[in-house]
Amino acid sequence: MAEAGVASRRRSRALVVAVVALLVGAVAFVSTAGSDTADEFVTRDGATLQVDGSTFRFVGFNLYDAAASDIYSCSPSTRLDDAGLDDAMRQVRDAGGTVVRFWAFQTYTAGGTDYSGVDRVLAAAREHDLRVMPVLEDGPGDCSTGEPGVPLAETGQGDWYSAGYREPLGEALLSYRDYVGQITEHYRDDPTIVAWSLVNEAETDRRDEEDRTVLVDFARDVSAVAHEADPRHLVTLGTQSNGAPGTSGADFVDVYGLAGMDLTEVHDWGFYGDDEAAMPGAAPGGGLPDPEQCQAPDAQVACSFVLARQLGKPLVVGEAGITADSSDDRARRAQLLGAKIAAAFEAGASGYLVWQLNRSDTDGYGVVLGSDDPLFAVLEDAGGTWATGPS
């Protein structure tokens, strides 16, 4: 009887285990099926971005210190608490925006040990049906782990883009290369992210033995790291491509022609172009220039549009800024940026992000949260005209 009882209890336990296993398997299947959001990720089809098979074009803002927290803030005047961040995302959405670009450097994540600041940005964006473009390092050297204000191109022996990125920068815990692999893997399953921007305004006049910009090998290597860790998100280098060294004209083609570069990027700044021009570097009459005229290393914004078209890849204007110190200046800025946005989309842009939304005007380019800046209405009109597809 005792043996029979033991056998019976064993059979009962086995049955319970089997049932639990089946239930866990069923739950796992449902969970996996429910979280399979591949069709919600931003993808690329030739020169267009897509979401679930539909064309995706966007407008939005740079909110560079969005991930500020107790870990790090670029400046006390730019940090937003939870309510402030939520309100900022609401204002982006109310202005017709669907994408926010922000810094996700090692400073904001304690060297990849605490992602709570970035998590907060993603959660706030999702709450308002927005997407984000995180930037992983700063070319000009601001808000990062190196010496403040020292560009990466001038760091150490000036070889950061060829060797230095493999070692920790200043106070960083990780090398830049290792950090790219870690953060991209961490967020590989989050469709809130449009694309990874590897370095804000990567640029250098250094050349390799074949007289190519050293950014070619840098972009090839780091984009491979990102894609291996995270095969679901797109990658861009994050360049100005407006006459800035190592990223314009023929260099633009060499860098963005790489297989690991999913989309191209350009920034529209007066000091490399013309605030008054809707498309700096355009041909006489306003059209795009001949590609043959776009090989010079100081080729302006219009050439990057032409060359991106040649490469068959999407182009995003990651930053466009004009200073404004008075109400008259702000009205002028709104008019000029409205013309720039229209010209960019007419030339085939996939996205346009204004520099920069903030609590205060920290650099003369600020669009202040809660203000009556006419640029909000201009962006809303542009979103209604040019933005397409789901947020």
Bulk shape? globular
Q: How much β-strand is present in the residues? A: 5-15%
State the CATH class of the largest domain. Answer: Alpha Beta
| Order of the strands making up the biggest sheet | 6-5-4-11-10-9
- Mind telling me which CATH architecture of the largest domain this is? Alpha-Beta Barrel
Helix content: 25-40%
Could you please describe the fold and organization of this structure?
With 391 residues, the protein is an alpha/beta fold. The protein folds into 2 domains: 35 residues; 330 residues, Alpha-Beta Barrel (TIM Barrel), CATH 3.20.20. 36% of the residues lie in helices and 13% in strands. The protein has 10 helices and 13 strands. The strands form 4 sheets. Strands 6-5-4-11-10-9 form a 6-stranded parallel sheet. The protein has a 3-stranded antiparallel sheet with strand order 1-2-3, with no helix packed on it. Strand 2 and strand 3 form a beta hairpin. Helix 5 packs parallel to helix 6 and helix 6 runs parallel beside helix 7. The radius of gyration is 23 Å and the shape is globular. The protein starts with a helix and ends in a 5-residue tail after the last helix.
Short structural summary:
The chain has 391 residues and is α/β, with parallel strands linked by helices.
Key traits:
2 domains; globular; single chain; 3-stranded antiparallel β-sheet; disordered N terminus; alpha/beta; TIM Barrel; 391 residues; 10 helices
